[in-house]
Queue: 4 jobs
Job 1
Amino acid sequence: MTLGNHTIVTQFLLLGLSTDPHIQALLFVLFLEIYLLTLMGNLMMLLVIRADSHLHMPMFFFLSHLSLLDLCLSSVTVPKILKDLLSETKTISLRGCLAQGFFVLITAGTECFLLSAMAYDRYAAICHPLLYGQMMKKQLCVQLVWGSWGLASLNAFINTLLAANLDFCENHTISHHSCEVPSLFPLSCSDVSINLIVLLCSSLMHGFGTLLPIVFSYAHIVSTILSISSTSGRSKTFSTCSSHLTAVSFFFGSGFLRYLMPTSGSPLELIFSVQYGVVTPMVNPLIYSLRNKEVKAAVRRTLGKYMRWSR
């Protein structure tokens, strides 16, 4: 298909993570293991939270949705990466590229809002323990989750729709292992200034709009923890939010930088993308299962029930 003197591109070539066949084989094994661990870890969290009545609380309600999001985010990109690592030609259609970019935006965006809601939950539990039941009613928790999905969907729809209206001419090589909306802009022969402005503004609004409530919540949490006289009391209180703080650091640190830094196909850009889209979904269930006493106890109870049923 042609436009003027240009050939309109309907298919892209992904450079992937490496062109060396031996390194690709090693990467295939590595990413397959990561993906299987991600599936098992997050499915385990969903099963344990649903099966154990002791975990039917707001914090674990949010955690179950975080596990679902991590499953979705990883499944949007990793199966395609695994396929490409075994293929000589790493191609993706324009529609497939836009679809992948859309689902990355919606799952990653929803996770930002959800982590912010989880920070508010920790603020309510630590700073206002007597009012926790009133502040974190089930109806509010459901509204926060649906609101997270709704706002992220709107952001993904706007940015993907603008990208779908671009024309892509001649250059069809994406210096990346997956299709994300920012990776398409250097390939377009259309004016992408509006796309860049909208993406930058939405990323800043999305990032700071979710990060500021987290900072606000933890400022009050730290203040409350410091006011506790005993060292053991401070340590015990901090342990209830350390898992969430670790998850926030992993996800926001890499995801925010990925969408704010210029698209260049640099190794740093690839590292940030792999960290928030591949590594973080695997690490989150480990963080919450290893550092949370309630989850560890629930896993033991669930495994105990399964062992008794299997006899």
Job 2
Amino acid sequence: MFTSTGSSGLYKAPLSKSLLLVPSALSLLLALLLPHCQKFFVYDLHAVKNDLQIWRLICGRLICLDLKDTFCSSLLIYNFRIFERRYGSRKFASFLLGAWVLSALFDFILVEAVQYSFGVAAASNLPSGFLAPVFALFVPFYCSIPRIQVAQILGPLSITNKTLIYILGLQLFTSGSYIWIVAISGLISGLCYDSKMFQVHQVLCIPSWMAQFFSWTLEPIFSSSEPSSEARVGMGATVDIQRQQRMEQLDRQLMLSQFAQARRQRQQQGGMINWNRLFPPLRQRRNINYQDGRQSEQPASPPLEVSEEQVARLMEMGFSRGDALEALRASNNDLNVATNFLLQH
């Protein structure tokens, strides 16, 4: 996908892995083997309100009964694992918990508003599943992930590293009649939690003792090993494109290995990483002119001035100004490369 979500796999994302495996497995189990038990996982607000079936607020908002919703939400959770890597599992779990609780309140408000305005009583049966927190994650995704153009189409229209994620969200948004209620309540709850409105992030959070307990018990089960190598680069349309792709892949592998070695040295000795000392030759390598068959050496250009706008975008993602400056200088003001380094490490 065209997302800059760091390295592939679920390394340093045990909570995301558990949200991918457990609800998906239960959803398949209910759909294929236990269809008679699906009635216990229906998200029926009418039964919650009139019959005081409070347990439906939990069971009806954890497991998807529609396999299409299961598939789309799983893909989105996989791409949103970047936030668990950046903030840590405890803060990521606190955001999901806060969005899950707040969205239940907004579900009631929106359903009552729809019934009062349009007299639609069927709106009380909302789509089941862990959907509202997934929609809530679009708020930090929109605000903190840089938008990097991948391809230009039809004049002003362009494909970015975030396009396919928005398409997935739109697919999930249109998968049911009343899922828009869940989507809106999720977006509102994500906005409230992300903006720290009414200090909800201090009330709806995972206690440290609980986070420590789950790190001892469940994290070893759902942890993933560090990826040993980068994914293979797809074959280009021409030989020139293939060679350029291989050169770019070698650049990334070299920079990642040197960055990891520098971090180990900094942990032992302390101090700031000297990016310019580590990566001076990356933008000064020899360029090959395939059109006229001649080789020419590109003279080393003076270092570009770091863009304050790009520094601000990296700082909005949670990185310090010093790390943002060093990453941009090392990557020659390439925001995509700098973001990938900072997210993966």
Job 3
Amino acid sequence: MASMKLIVPLLRRYISIAISLFQSLVLCLFDNFDYPILINLADAFLSLYFITFCDLRPITVDLNDGETTVHFWVSGHRRNNRPDLVMLHGYGGNSKWQFIHQVSDLSKSFNLFIPDLVFFGKSHSRNTERTVEFQARNVVGGLKRLGCSEGGLAVYSISYGGFVAYRIAKMWPEMIERLVIVSSGVGFTQQQKMTEMKKHGGDVSEILVPRSPRDLRMLVRISMNTGIAFIDWVPDFILSQFIAVMYETNRKELVELAKNLLEREEDAEFYAISQKTLIIWGDKDEVFPLEHGRRLHRHLPNSSIEILKDIGHGVNIEAPTTLNNLITSFVLDVS
């Protein structure tokens, strides 16, 4: 009898997954010819991977009377003997695509909370604000709705997510105990940000929010130092489908987020956070060069820095195992 109680919910879960995949396949085949079938199917199978192998569940949280919706992936079984870890992504797709190489390992040591930042993935809003503070408020609002209001959280953030994480640590210091910042231009002046990004030519927002396969290939080459040869072999139609799925629905809003980030001037008190912080940087980062990681380290007395040799901006893609080990050791305080 007890075994039946365990089997029935499991069967319901897998039947639900099968129905969702079948619905996606039907839509792909019959909705219209231009439907980005390959990327949507890949996205559906990523969801299956998160659910089946990482014990993660999709949860949607409505904030401010439904004005903003934040989509999360959260651990299906939250264990009291594991710390809570929030994972904040950067530009380059939704949270599933950015953390695919990390969630399986990290889910074994932590209760995970992985939001799609607003206008990425399934998170959206009718609000016209495009600031980092706006993202921070929505992440915190969602976390509180999910029961993370007592503090003691660890936050791992990369690139754009680092700006959001840092703002959370400053505005809600009681919630955050430890902070991991990876390849993020936190503390940049407006001029520094523009100088670095203009090295790559063209409109910076067009690089971060690509329109064409050529733009997407450029973004990959800028973001990675190793393992980039594959991008030249991916057919244009697949890259076009990826762009359609990841960027087209909220293109305007994503560009506005990028412009706000690049044009804002950080305040002089931005460095004043007390949380223990681990800074991780690739020494071949061409988006935010290593000197800026060292500068951030100097301004944070309670910080340490790890430099990864021959790694570019996309540490989560180029060195996920090393990154996971550093995060786990730091958060669990294992020397």
Job 4
Amino acid sequence: MELGSVGFIGLGNMGSRMANNLIKNGYKVAVHDINCNVMKMFSDMGVPTKETPFEVAEASDVVITMLPSSSHVLDVYTGPNGVLRCANLMRPQLLIDSSTIDPRTSRKVSVAVSNCILKEKKDHWEKPVMLDAPVSGGVLAAEAGTLTFMVGGSEDAYLAAKPLFLSMGKNAIYCGGAGTGSAAKICNNLAMAVSMLGVSEAFALGQSLGISAGTLTKVLNTSSARCWSSDSYNPVPGVMEGVPASRNYAGGFASKLMAKDLNLAATSVEEAGLQCPLTYQAHEIYTELCRDGHEIEDFSCVFRHYYSGKDEL
């Protein structure tokens, strides 16, 4: 597959950094975003900017999207000026959506893409193909080019796209058919939320029973409860340096984004008809945190604001 020119749509905190890494790695990139300021920033760097998603598609062999929600994704692909506007004569062979959205929407867009026809058939590609490829690692990993991509769709397309993923990240994991990349992301963030709540609850209880968070951290991290929330992203201010808890919960992964991802998980649970009480409880807690004014603080702030945990002096 010829992946010479790349179109990038969605230049927010994540997308702008991912697009930059593609440019650094020698890809010819054209960009689009609804934010004029960020478009100007790219055009000042000499990067071609396009007025609509459709214009990006017309100029690109591959289109990558990084958007805030399912409705944005549907609009960018299937809207009046969307990527798929010229469905019978499409230029891009490969479409990659790195947004965190529900698996159902990923599958819906994938079906729409598979009904399109390529303007020029190259290699053995008869039709354009879609991959859902959300990421883990946040803004710092996007900046450093160390993201992990979770990829759903055709395995051939995944293999063809791997050099692109490894220009923006350090890992790409093939998850299965359409929608499984989105499913993997939702499941990862559900587990991350529940483990953060469990660890925060344990620290708050420990403090009220007279054991300091620093000491309990040593216990957890040499025992069976050890996990990422205890050993790499500790939520108690004063226990660990370099984490959001050490800077008043600034930066990191915003509570409002966690609430959004838990909402996606809750929707998927309902569709699957499963018993998942922790999904609902975690979603409720993070929704409450946001309502109480902590939506832009890192999600580990649940220790302070929900459990009323104390800083380690």
